[in-house]
Design brief:
The protein is α/β, with parallel strands linked by helices. The protein has helices at 2-24, 41-57, 72-79, 93-102, 110-113, 138-146, 162-174, 186-195, 205-213, 261-275, 278-286, 296-317; strands spanning 30-34, 61-65, 87-92, 114-123, 125-129, 153-156, 179-182, 200-204, 218-222, 249-256, 290-294.
């Protein structure tokens, strides 16, 4: 009897301690690790959210850059950090769902080594052509390429990235044959698209919208389910006749696996609050990302559903990195 009472007392103390820990969280600064250099899209996204997140959590938030190997260096750093909610990772589609298919010796497994906290944004792309290409619509472009198999080039920011794989998914959906020209980054690829060295490219909305309006490129379609406010006159790929074609990148926050559920819930709720602020939402859209909150459990399910889609695209593209 005494042993039973003692066990119950120990459990009660442990539960009380855990509750106190959650109630106190956070009681020191929170660090967000980004696996890419400062100044890029993920950095912009982090800064936009952390300004408000500090107010919601009541603690300073620091951003740390651990760039290298397509975001895997940063992911490893977070994976090895204490699972206490004070070290988070801001990651994108590449880090979470493309890299596992792209690298044969990846040091982390997305669903095993991380606790998803919140998906914060979706990032649609625009399918662009050089203005000298005579096609004015996506169906016209498909017919144009079909009549010239292997003669049309498309540029990307590099092998295995979203700007490579989105056109690969488009090719799979249409049965087209285009030649991939990988560049070292988006800027030189986009320059060559405007110059006519490549005829086709998938690019993020802000850049696409700016140059489409100037007539330097022509946007034929957007890859999201709905039209984009930055390009309201441009139809979606699905509207253009390719059923179930939705290819969008995402941004989300994750913690090391084993982070206490109540700490995850507290962080998830904090991101939800920040994403409901109108000024955050409008600034995010100007940065080219659509606010798209998912809580911890739904984000976890979303990741599990995205991984096979991108693995299939990687396999069909033949891209491999190590």
């Amino acid at each position: 009897m005494h042993t039973h009472l003692l066990t119950r007392a120990v459990v009660a103390v442990a539960l009380a301690a855990a509750n106190t820990l959650a109630a106190a969280f956070p009681d020191k600064p929170v660090k967000i690790i980004i696996g890419f250099p400062a100044g890029g899209p993920l950095d912009q996204h982090a800064r936009l959210l952390t300004d408000k997140l500090q107010g919601v959590l009541g603690q300073p938030i620091m951003i740390d850059y651990k760039s290298g190997a397509g975001g895997t260096v940063g992911a490893q750093e977070v994976m090895k950090a204490p699972a206490d909610g004070y070290t988070l990772m801001l990651a994108n589609t590449g880090v979470m769902v493309i890299n596992p298919a792209l690298y044969s010796k990846l040091p982390y497994a997305t669903l095993r080594d991380f606790s998803p906290i919140a998906r914060t944004a979706m990032q649609p792309l625009a399918l662009l052509v050089n203005p000298k290409v005579p096609a004015k619509t996506l169906p016209e472009f498909i017919a144009y390429v079909r009549a010239r198999p292997g003669q049309i080039n498309y540029g990307s920011a590099g092998n295995g990235g979203i700007s490579h794989l989105a056109p690969e998914m488009f090719k799979s959906s249409t049965g087209l044959f285009m030649v991939h020209i990988p560049y070292r980054g988006s800027a030189p690829a986009f320059t060559d698209l405007m110059g006519g060295q490549v005829e086709f490219m998938a690019e993020s909305i802000p850049q696409a919208a700016t140059y489409h309006k100037q007539g330097k490129v022509r946007a034929l379609a957007v890859t999201s389910r709905e039209r984009n406010p930055a390009l309201p006159e441009v139809p979606t790929v699905m509207e253009s006749g390719i059923k179930n074609f939705e290819v969008v990148g995402f941004y989300g926050f994750l913690a090391p696996t084993g982070t206490p559920k109540d700490v995850v819930a507290k962080l998830s709720e904090a991101f939800k609050q920040v994403l409901s602020m109108p000024e955050v939402r409008s600034r995010m859209i100007t940065q080219g990302a659509d606010p798209a909150f998912l809580g911890a459990e739904d984000f976890s399910k979303y990741l599990a559903s995205e991984m096979p889609r991108w693995a299939d695209a990687v396999a069909k593209s033949g891209a491999k990195l190590d």
